[in-house]
Amino acid sequence: MTNFSKGDMRVDLTYGGAEPDAEEAKKNIDNFLQRARRLYKKKGEELKFILATEHKQHRIHHHLLMNFIKGKIEEDDIAALWPYAKLNYRSTRKFDGGPEDARRLAWYITKETDKTIGDDDSIQKVRYRCSRNLMKPDVKKEVIYSRKWAESPKPPEGYTAYDTEEGVTEDGFPFQIIRMKKDITDEEREKWNRKMERWEHHLLKGREKRELQSRSQKSKAGRKKPMDEKLPGKAGAHGQRNAPRNRRCH
């Protein structure tokens, strides 16, 4: 992919205590990004991220995709930058770098903001935020010359217009810009949601299995007895056997 690659990290930032209001949540995530930039700069790297904040019908939380520098920055370093809740094994996941995972992440990060972008009470007025150092996508533009245009232009079939901008160029020519997104049918969205649920379930099961194996190994290591410990009827530390019990003769 252009800006992110295999091994980069998806992070979900939540709040463990009282839920902040919109202004406080924005301040918290901005402070997190500022601390992250300083951390990356200290390691000789540059932070790249895509961010969306969700709040409809649930507590405020933030979804991010960040570049991950293996060997320089660990997951614990990222967790230390967020003091508002303890990150667990569900809070971070690795990006596999493929187009299928990129589509999943794009849907996951913008699944709410895609619907609430025009709402008056929306915390985030754009579909997503991103760092300025990302390479811009290849946007297709079509120039249509006309003496006049409609105030509410009708988008092509299969697309929805979500923003219209009008103005005048430096040369004095009026212009109109229409931003559109491709529609997804209810059947396609439902199919995608089921696929995402299976994907989430698969990742959760894998993490639970690894945690169980880790706890099992630690438990076995704690029960392991020293090699020189004396056992009944066997050679002790000095190669001597325990004395047999005295038997009463009749």
Task: Describe the 3D structure.
The chain is α+β, with helices and mostly antiparallel strands and about 250 residues long. It has a domain at about 1-135: Alpha-Beta Plaits, CATH 3.30.70. Helix content is about 30%, strand content about 15%. The protein contains five helices and seven strands. The protein has a five-stranded antiparallel β-sheet, covered by helices on one side. β2 and β3 form a beta hairpin. The radius of gyration is 29 Å and the shape is elongated. It starts with 8 loop residues before the first strand and ends in a 27-residue tail after the last helix.
What would you report as the Rg, rounded to the nearest angstrom? 29 Å
The beta-strand count equals: 7
Order of helices and strands: EHEEHEHHEEEH
Quickly give the CATH architecture of the domain at 1-136: 2-Layer Sandwich
Beta-strand residue fraction: 15-25%
Give the CATH level 1 class of the domain at 1-136. Alpha Beta
Briefly note the CATH topology name of the domain at 1-136. Answer: Alpha-Beta Plaits
Structural class comes to alpha+beta
Flag low-confidence runs. 234-240
Percent helix: 25-40%
Largest sheet: 5 strands, antiparallel
**Structure annotation, total helices:** 5
Please tell me the overall pLDDT. Answer: 78
Strand order of the largest sheet: 4-1-3-2-5
Termini separation: 88 Å
Tell me the overall shape.
elongated
